[in-house]
Amino acid sequence: MDNWDDMRVFLAVARAEGLSGAAPSLKMDPSTLGRRIARLERAVGAALFVKSPQGYALTDLGERMKARAAEAEIHLTHARDEGQCDATALTGQIRIGAPDGAANFLLPQVCAAIQAQNPALEVQILALPRVVNLSRREADMAVTVSPPAAGRLTVQKITDYQLHLAMRADAPPLRCVADLKERQIVGYIPDMIFDKELDYLDVIDADRVQMASNSVAVQLQMIRQSGVGIVHDFALPFAPELRMVLTDAVALARSFYLVRHTSDRRSDRLARFAQALRQGMQEEVARLEYAACLTASPPI
């Protein structure tokens, strides 16, 4: 490769296993990327990818080149971070992957506060209904609801959070969990639950949901229309017409974890951002949960 830009393009296509997947992060269109890869292969004198309608798969040479390019990327990142060690403000781009509950109701406020203190910093929030793949560099770090069991990753617990049943304040009251059988239940699409910690049906003794979505934000909007479902306490201040119900009978606790690639452990820039992110999320969860408790319906 002649320069870092060639390496950056190659790595992005290799990790995304295709041109379309790599295009957004590189801010280039797929046709331009295709020409860049073709030019690179001509310069190398060999194919780096096997192209098919299913995507771009690395050749043996491509695999070896990817390993070397990834090592160089790590060293370049560390070199950039060394230049910031004595700086007071963070700069550059940092992308966070997160489940959509955190991405919708917590990270916008937290990241806005961090960015306000670091005007040259560009923060991106990647909200996905699945676990973000850090090995493919989909993000610099990820918020998860379960600590990963495998991979070259470092994990820090961020904070615990609470969930309760909620429904419209003007709906007929619920006396007990058994009353839920007569109500429209809102929840996840069962075959799209990507983490066991998100499976709440057993808690409310339900075998199905009448209205479902893979998005927490969409579920909240469904409950605002009608029905009842499990809601993050920190989301309730965003839906003032909803109230917690049956709080003595149904109360769940879950945790958020911050996951980073092990190779980034020496990055002062990412470490400083991670610390600010953890502290900000802890404070925002506490603030929003306190606000939600003030509007909880009293136990029956």
UniProtKB/TrEMBL annotation:
Pfam families: HTH_1, LysR_substrate. Residues 1-59 form the HTH lysR-type domain. The keyword DNA-binding applies. Keywords: DNA-binding, Transcription, Transcription regulation. SUPFAM superfamilies: Periplasmic binding protein-like II, Winged helix' DNA-binding domain. It comes from the Bacteria. One of its GO terms (molecular function) is DNA-binding transcription factor activity. Gene3D superfamilies: 3.40.190.290, Winged helix-like DNA-binding domain superfamily/Winged helix DNA-binding domain. One of its GO terms (biological process) is DNA-templated transcription. PANTHER family: HTH-TYPE TRANSCRIPTIONAL REGULATOR, TRANSCRIPTIONAL REGULATORY PROTEIN. Belongs to the LysR transcriptional regulatory family. This is LysR family transcriptional regulator. It comes from Yoonia maricola.
